[in-house]
């Protein structure tokens, strides 16, 4: 749990958060056919990017830039509607920065570092002393002020936020090899044999894709890298390894700055980058005491505050009872004559009679017909499920009709429904 150090003026006041939100997230399959991964819905009310943005606001950062690229319309629309409260007259700013060939008429963002480099003039016009570079596609709560304090006190040129993971699972990440003082000795991208933390042979430090720099140093490094032939213009592949080689990079443990309410037993961070991980992280929120407390009023997760009517549950007849148990149900939903168990219903979902919905993540605007039985599914937004549809009972039939994950989660989109015919 974070304990904010005493400091006369919070460093967050002198910082700008720069969120990298241009990636597709192809492992989410059809969920990202129409939207970038940071725009994917999460937690019955939010979108994934809301976590990084809320962390910035709650940490005291009032200058924010968001770089977008892949299929950004829904992401941009969400931010325009939900994040338009920052005001320049209060020395606040919120810039949406789509890839727009600002440096070259032939180049979009070539990599994560290039997404910052192409907007250096905008960043420097605000004059932030520090830059907090964030990935926009992870679910977690973190106080960036604590990391800023750590960065300044260490004298490092870059501070890299890291999570502890079982060593042999770290091969899916960029891994920090550190000494006893957490100075980064080497950075290894998805190593087959990840290095362990000193004194803990079974644990490794994986990069969270969160970096703190002094702005002047970052600008100089980005300009240097832009002139390097063969550079991939990427933080993890180019910028960070160069600073590590100079011996000026330190690791920051997520446990030192994670934000936990009294209900959260562990430091929570999730990359919901696969259909299975996305389904599981959402369904976990239905636990009596979930690992992630989204009800924490001391660290709210801001989002587009859509005006919706209350959720409604109707009919109370045997065999036709509208009810939800161990579930999250958003505004605008109507559950009519069907049992909903251990599920998340985003806004404006309609569930009609004589069915059973269990282990379902139903994105906004889904309509579930009569006599529909669902188990272990993710249904994309605005999908209309026809009367009598059964999913989650016959694996072979599910795999023939829908996208079935390795762990048996069925992803359903409207084109898949249309392909059924009739």
TrEMBL record:
Catalysed reactions, semicolon-separated: alpha-D-glucose 1-phosphate + ATP + H(+) = ADP-alpha-D-glucose + diphosphate
Site description Could play a key role in the communication between the regulatory and the substrate sites, residues in chain: 69, 108
Pfam families to which the protein is assigned, alphabetical: Hexapep_GlmU (PF24894), NTP_transferase (PF00483)
Binding site for alpha-D-glucose 1-phosphate: 109, 174, 189-190, 207
An example molecular function term from Gene Ontology annotations: glucose-1-phosphate adenylyltransferase activity
Residue ranges annotated for the Nucleotidyl transferase domain, each copy included: 18-286
Domain Glucose-1-phosphate adenylyltransferase/Bifunctional protein GlmU-like C-terminal hexapeptide residues, every copy: 309-412
UniProt entry keywords in alphabetical sequence: ATP-binding, Carbohydrate metabolism, Glycogen biosynthesis, Glycogen metabolism, Nucleotide-binding, Nucleotidyltransferase, Transferase
Superkingdom of origin: Bacteria
EC supergroup of this enzyme: transferase
Subunit annotation: Homotetramer.
Function: Involved in the biosynthesis of ADP-glucose, a building block required for the elongation reactions to produce glycogen. Catalyzes the reaction between ATP and alpha-D-glucose 1-phosphate (G1P) to produce pyrophosphate and ADP-Glc.
Similarity comment: Belongs to the bacterial/plant glucose-1-phosphate adenylyltransferase family.
PANTHER family for the chain: GLUCOSE-1-PHOSPHATE ADENYLYLTRANSFERASE (PTHR43523:SF2), GLUCOSE-1-PHOSPHATE ADENYLYLTRANSFERASE-RELATED (PTHR43523)
NCBIfam families xref list: glgC, PRK00725.1, PRK00844.1
Protein name (Swiss-Prot/TrEMBL): Glucose-1-phosphate adenylyltransferase
Organism (species): Muricoccus nepalensis
